[in-house]
Design a protein that fits this description.
Low-confidence stretches: none
Helix content: 25-40%
Largest sheet: 5 strands, antiparallel
Number of domains: 1
Family: Belongs to the replication factor A protein 1 family.
CATH topology: OB fold (Dihydrolipoamide Acetyltransferase, E2P)
Strand content: 25-35%
Distance between the termini: 10 Å
GO cellular component, one term: nucleus
Structural class: alpha+beta
Order of helices and strands: EEEEEEEHHHE
GO molecular function: DNA binding; zinc ion binding
Protein name: DDIAS protein
Mean pLDDT: 90
CATH class: Mainly Beta
Number of helices: 3
GO biological process, one term: negative regulation of intrinsic apoptotic signaling pathway in response to DNA damage
Number of strands: 8
Length: 130
């Protein structure tokens, strides 16, 4: 699944959603189902303490080359250099920020993160392995 079939030079037109980080199963990378104390992977059945859940990047983009538009999703640690930290650390920073500022509505921190990601990616040209 990680084999690159080709390279595509394209520009990012838009960010498709505001959820850049997700709790990921260590075994199969599927999205975990979290409650306040536990996590569970619906795909492989892995379970554990919610505090031990790991996180992974998932960035959905609309991109364009000279001829076509594409919807792509970029996963994992290849995004670490763009965010400056691992997904795990970014999630921890977001939680700490929200606790520090006693944010019950996390909308303001989400808006700030979305704006930063849009600034970093929209209008920029990248080479994507597809």
């Amino acid at each position: 699944m990680n084999s690159v079939q080709g390279l595509l030079a394209a520009s990012v037109i838009s960010i498709q959603n505001s959820c850049f980080i997700y709790p990921a199963c260590q075994n199969c990378f599927s999205r975990l189902i979290l409650d306040s104390r536990r996590f569970h992977c619906p795909k492989c059945g892995c379970a554990g303490e919610a505090k031990d859940a790991s996180y992974r990047y998932r960035l959905s983009l609309k991109i364009a080359d000279t001829n076509d538009l594409f919807d792509i999703t970029v996963f994992g640690s290849c995004l670490d250099p763009f965010f400056g930290v691992t997904a795990e650390n970014l999630q921890r920073y977001i939680q700490e920020f929200n606790q520090l500022w006693e944010e019950t509505n996390t909308e303001s921190s989400t808006r700030a993160l979305v704006h930063a990601v849009e600034t970093c990616f929209i209008g920029k040209r990248f080479i994507f392995g597809v």
